[in-house]
Amino acid sequence: xxxxxxxxxxxxxxxxxxxxxxxxxxxxxxxxxxxxxxxxxxxxxxxxxxxxxxxxxxxxxxxxxxxxxxxxxxxxxxxxxxxxxxxxxxxxxxxxxxxxxxxxxxxxxxxxxxxxxxxxxxxxxxxxxxxxxxxxxxxxxxxxxxxxxxxxxxxxxxxxxxxxxxxxxxxxxxxxxxxxxxxxxxxxxxxxxxxxxxxxxxxxxxxxxxxxxxx
Length: 215
Known about the structure:
Elements: H1 13-22, E1 30-33, H2 36-46, E2 50-54, E3 66-70, H3 73-84, E4 90-94, E5 100-109, E6 113-120, H4 124-128, E7 132-135, H5 140-149, H6 154-157, H7 167-183, E8 186-197, E9 200-203, E10 206-210
Antiparallel strand pairs: 1-4, 2-3, 2-4, 5-6, 5-8, 6-7, 8-9, 8-10
Helix pairs in contact: 2-3
């Protein structure tokens, strides 16, 4: 994959997820729009229920820029009008549910080089704040040992209510992100959440930060 132009500050969610798709990481089906009726048309193509999110805002939830569970055209119309008042574009995305939500990322460390990051995602990221840091390039055995020491690690290593989760799919995403940061002018990239289902994983939100001075 050729290195893209990553200068100019953090990428939008939509742009970051396009890059994730290019490197083989599953992402939500979504469309970026600018008008209310465009949002309704996008929802019809994607299929209900959908999520409406403010585009171009890193911390969307804190500013009221996320609307979940939009199951009708009217719900999309109302939510889109509210979110568009924030002054950004609008991202209409399929709503994805799973057994577990994770934070998966990679970043550059001055001492250890490129490292991976794995923790609980969604609402649990700040509540628990117990992510595992793994110096790259990593291996599935190293990830397993790290998870054995993490209080929440059994959620991935053991069945969740009798349902096994695909740890191999999670580690594959982690290693792809490490490779991405290693090979491109990227300071950090984070997926939060990565929704884990019995049959695979889906990146629901993502943020990419370019290296300072990258052009």
